Amino acid sequence: MTQQQNAHMTQPVANADITTTSTTTIPNAAKTDLSTHQSKVIKNSQKNPLPDPILTEVNRRCRIAAEQLKRYSDVSQLPADTRTAPDLNIGFGQQRALKALQTALDIHASGYHVFAAGENGLGKRTVISRLLQRIAVEQPTPDDWVYVHNFTDPRTPMALHLPAGQSILLQQQVNNLWQQAKKRLNQRFRSDHYQSKIEAIKNATHQQETHAYDALNAEGKQYDLALTFRPFDNKAVFVHPSQLPTEDTSVSDSISDAANSNTADNNDDGEVKVATSHLNNNNKSTSAKTKTTSKDIENKHDDNGYEAELSNFAQKNHMQKRLNQLTIALEQLEDEANDAIEELHHNIAKRALQPLFTPIRELFTENQSVLDYLEAMFADMVTHVERIVNGDDEEFIAAVLATTPSRYAVNVMVSHKPDSGAPVIFEDLPTHLNLLGHVEQITQLGTVTTDVSMIRAGALHRANGGYLLLEASHVLEHPYAWQGLKRALQSRKIKLSSLEQMLTLTGSLSLSPAPVDLNVKVILLGEADLYYELLELEPEFDAVFKVRADFHDDVIRTNEHELALVAKMADIIDFAKLYPFDNSAQAALLEHLSLQAEDQDRLSLHSDLLIKLLHESNRHARLENQRIVDVHHVTQAIADMDERSGYLRDLYWEELKNGQQLINTQGQAVGQVNALTVVSYADSEFGMPARLTAVIQPNIGAGDILDIERDVDLGGSLHAKGMLIMTSYLRALFSQHHALNFSASLAFEQSYAHIDGDSATVSEACALLSALANIPINQAYAITGSMNQLGEVQAVGGINAKIAGFFDACREQALTGQQGVVIPMANVKQLMLRDDIIEAVKSGSFHIYGVNTLSEALTLMTGLPIDTLNKKKRYRKETLFGKVLQRLMLWDNNQDTGDTQLEEVTDKKSKKNKKRKNVKKKRNVSNNKMILS
Predict the structure, then answer these.
(1) Example GO molecular function term (predicted)?
(2) Domain spanning 120-141+424-540: which CATH class is it, in words?
(3) Which of the residues 506, 811, 897, 904 has an alpha carbon 20 to 30 A from that of 854?
């Protein structure tokens, strides 16, 4: 059956009505004229057939007026420009989220932290930050935290907390204290008073030593022995008087000479040295540990040839023992002298440092931990005063960039201004180190060292006592960051740990600072999908983040909310120092926000899009030397953004112009439909029509429908669901009347990408029913819509882009006035079409229809009634469903006819074969007879 015959068959009722009306209204006297007139009417009616009443009614009911295609903002209800806009309401459109946030802030129990869920670009961080800053101003300012050296356990620095602002004061006071202490100690140990004290101790010790040696020497003279010091090692020995050197005068003179030479050596350099080792140098001659045995004496006599001259060995041995006893006594005397010098140093240090520590103690009288630290520092400086003054120990020397040795440094971790409120911190790089802090290390000559001054604060330290905002996806990107954050929030303590040891299970020796008490509210920002993943994969997530704050994508479009959005525009404009926007520009922006929300009655709350539009509109005004932005500038900005993201769309239109992409916007075709689709790639999204075809294979299968896209793994699960729903609908529709003795296949032609979604269900049903009934579909129409198993058409997404895509295709192939789109009636409220499309609808060159059922869609696409029933509750023959049943029965009859003919041919062949066998048998009998005769 050709397409022309099909087109003629679509209007049988209209022709019949015309004929019936003509025969009943013409009198009998004019029958001759009647036949002539009737033939003319029939010929004219065949050229221009009257539309079917059902089609007329469906057209009237489903046609969408131009006024329904877009909702415009009332310019008169908007401010003259954004400078007169109302004040911004921070929580506009996000009351649910802010209420949840306030609940978490009011509860101070463990685990009441917040996960703010919403799409990226909604401005969650800005809204929450502004709200928290308003709340934080009225909150008490948290304490400062510092780390200082632990003089008891140097590997475990102490954490001290002070009232806000006092950490810097403590650091400054300790730095000044160190500078003054070092200067004063140098002065005291360089003074004449100190030197005289040292000389007195040394002289007293020297006199005691001299008297002891003189007494021992006098005792040795009784045995004809003299005490002398060997020149090569300055060791005291007893010898015979004849063996004394001629230049040696006396024991006391030798001791004095040794002391004078040592003193001169110590005073040669200009540096101030604490006299801790003077006695050791001065008393080498007097405190040598002499242990002369009888064998040593014999060796001595052998060397010098005096063995024969010693007459009384026992007496000399006795005096040598007395010398050893004197040496031990002199060592004790030396220790007493050293103790006296050390006591002198401590007394000098105490008297010098006490006036310096007193003012600092008075500043921190109410902080016992600071007083304890100052007391420990005072005792340490007194104990190590010699090392401080000598300056020969790195531990008591300030580093290159520091003014105070790390031993006495105050490392300020967190400092707040008094009465500044609670801190609000956003950490954009939430690594483990940046969240929890870390201990730095320095390498010098291959040696890794660290100290208390290298402890660095993390975001939790800075936000302690306040609020911390984090991007959830950023936290999960960095190793151990989530584990560290969770551990800190659960224990309510910030404990610095070595990430090197966590990663390698080894690591160098490092500091282990004391933990810091934690009191913070953490707000994680992320999308809802990430929230559900964390709930599923992280068992303890719900125990730590007990409150979820949902941020909405859009808001109901009312005059009040439009004014609130204008206030938001004004706030962005003031912050970015842009030109003011007049009310026409405001209206254009609001309409574009409704387009982004895909609903006439809603406004998108995506701040990123709004900020982008404001900046680009301001650019166009600046290029035109305008001081105020109007609708023309906003329109240009929207067009620029559309052009930037339209590269793929332009490639498609080029293929359409060149004929490479096969799309018909005129004529009719059986089993072929223009389906409306949306192409999404990265940030580019546009609508375009796609040819959908259906092919029937009669007498094969039982109503099986092959989804080619699904079988080649180009169709998604939602697309497969739509196909199954459509198949179930058709089975329920016709299987009760006749067996489904066919199979079919559906495919999107020239589609090589992944397809998903169920918005092609209605178009697939139209193509399949057209092929089953052999009824053509008007190619001037394109259709989209989802469908349920009852044949009801459901709303779909991307409706504005889909309509725009087919309109552009029709415009490329010339608008005929017959083209249009068929969409779900449920999508009419989501229409925010371009102005050129609306003008085309007003002028009648383009049409938009909204349908509620598949029958309405088929009526518009085929021009036939679909499911009209007769008195026997059967589909009328002239309906689409009736024609489907006719073809099903026709295929069945053709199959039966073919089977009957095959049986008749088989019977005829068998009869002929039987006759041939009988003739042959008779011949054989006759032959036999002839043989017998």
Answers:
(1) serine-type endopeptidase activity
(2) alpha beta
(3) 811
